[in-house]
Design brief:
mainly beta, four-stranded antiparallel beta sheet
């Protein structure tokens, strides 16, 4: 039996252009533990927030940031993963 005050987690992953939280968002993913929405990759042309700070100002809590790892010598211009990854969460009543 579920309570009407059940709390669920929503997760927002923002990839920023640099390691600074006030730098522009270049990629993102959303996950909704409430089941109310089912966001998918590429479902929007505009990021949900312009910066990581904007997400904080809207009530999202930062709980993980990628560690800063310098590029390997000679690989500075290689294509790879987006390395400035920040995970945010907010708890909502389902």
């Amino acid at each position: 039996m579920t309570s009407s005050n059940t709390v669920r987690q929503q997760v927002l992953v923002l990839y920023l252009s640099t390691s600074a939280l006030d730098s522009p968002v270049v990629g993102w993913a959303r996950y909704d533990g409430t089941g109310a929405t089912r966001p998918t990759t590429g479902d929007s042309d505009l990021p949900p927030y312009e910066t990581g700070v904007a997400a904080l100002q809207d009530g999202w809590r930062l709980f993980q940031a990628a560690q800063l790892i310098p590029p390997y010598p000679g690989a500075e211009h290689e294509t790879s993963f987006l390395k400035h990854e920040f995970f945010f969460e907010r708890l909502v009543t389902a």
